């Protein structure tokens, strides 16, 4: 079976991909260099596999490869085991979702996790399932939360020291964000860590510690339905033995309902929504927090992946590119702010970031309070980035070789306004309206190579449609990324020059991987347009409504005889 040591070495071992992120640090970097800048043009398809049915919605998964089998999840909470040599199906599992599930942003699933003889994945009805790797038989199935209250699940689980660690989704329904750890063998809960102040964590079935201080940064009872969904899963920094989870938007979106009126210092910050939390994997206790958007009011979820790396000065850091448009470097020991830069162009909501990492707000760019207007609709503001973010869920990659981060971003804005809202269990809890708009005629998507030490953009690749897929980089000097237009592309990691592309037949919102088999290097990515853009993208959704849906995984290889060819 797969051990903790195997997971710890996943970033270095090139013959398998056992974890989300190609290593629990989520660098999405492969030391493989069989495919390089010169020969990448000879990359050809090896096989493709269809997920079948009418269920062709967004395919956001990262595949895994282990012991001759590819494991890949698909929309509507399905999981496939495929012979990695031939592309033939070995088994499939369909979670058969109940009526009435409430995912905010398409029926996506971002991937699975392998440990022991099991594979684990979460389903849209907020359950976590353990399946036998060889047969696909269910070993156990546990409830993360009640889907009827608006909870769902879309992320890849994280495995650390025999624990299956999951977050939750539902920030648009007034749920409470939480991280849970289960015994991988039995599925029994070991600890829970709610992320909103005032809620009680548990350890082995007993109350552990309260998160924060009751009513310190939330007015009245608003903490009870405060959001902060931990919907993108976490990373693990082995050097400091810390699990890092981001937390989503506070609920409701209307930030006037979460405002101060509270004399205790950090009034109305709404901790720990729109934050990053460093957790102790053994107990779920919070070691540190860093809030990117206090009293968030534009739907800037703070869930983005936190990636441990070593910077140009040899210091151990974390990097994270927030939905709010700023790229942050944090200290690895305590999560303290080190430096930041805007990574999209026309940020309106903040003038910048102060020396403590706190945004310097443009208060006039906060959507207005309905109570200061006609009581029904507050003042409309045009804000950028749009609520879908300078960067949404799609993960960046880091190359220790170039030292750069490759950040998939989008340049767009929105009209946004607030409305009154009261909480009703299982109903949308926004108190806001919005229309997303492009900022430039020729592009929305922008892949940026960012130097995390000098804080400069080294190169940029502009894409017409918004980017919605993950990025991967390799020691061969390459960056791989898919586009909604359907291409998987390879770029020169130093210059951004496009070196190869292949049309997969539907938009790519998946996450590429690479591995080595019989001395040849392979690349795989899922294809199938979807996710939040077609559902929530306003004028941008109209602009890209010609894109076709799909549902497949594509596998490419560099044939041995073409590895040295010009
Ligand atoms: O607050 C939440 O619980 C939550 C969950 C999810 C999700 O689980 O997919 C998304 C969002 N928020 C969100 O704000 C968002 O823009 C988004 C985009 C996507 C996607 O897969 O395209 N999911 C989500
Ligand atoms: Ca959200």
TrEMBL record:
Q: Which SMART domains does its entry note?
A: PQQ (SM00564)
User: Which positions bind pyrroloquinoline quinone?
Assistant: 60, 110, 154, 392-393
UniProt remark on cofactor binding: Binds 1 PQQ group per subunit.
Keyword set includes Cytoplasm: no
Primary localization: periplasm
Give this protein's Gene Ontology molecular function annotations.
Answer: calcium ion binding; oxidoreductase activity, acting on CH-OH group of donors; pyrroloquinoline quinone binding
**What are the alphabetically sorted keywords of the record?**
Calcium, Disulfide bond, Metal-binding, Oxidoreductase, Periplasm, PQQ, Signal
List the active-site residues.
299
Residues that coordinate or bind Ca(2+) = 172, 249, 299
Localization annotation: Periplasm
Q: One cellular component GO annotation, for this chain's record?
A: outer membrane-bounded periplasmic space
Here the disulfide bonds are 104-105
Domain called Pyrrolo-quinoline quinone repeat: residue spans? 24-338, 439-523
| InterPro entries in the record | ADHI (IPR034119), PQQ_b-propeller_rpt (IPR018391), PQQ_MeOH/EtOH_DH (IPR017512), PQQ_rpt_dom (IPR002372), Quinoprotein_ADH-like_sf (IPR011047), Quinoprotein_DH_CS (IPR001479)
**Record's family?**
Belongs to the bacterial PQQ dehydrogenase family.
- What name does the UniProt record give this protein? Alcohol dehydrogenase (Cytochrome c)
Q: Which organism is it from?
A: Oceanicella actignis
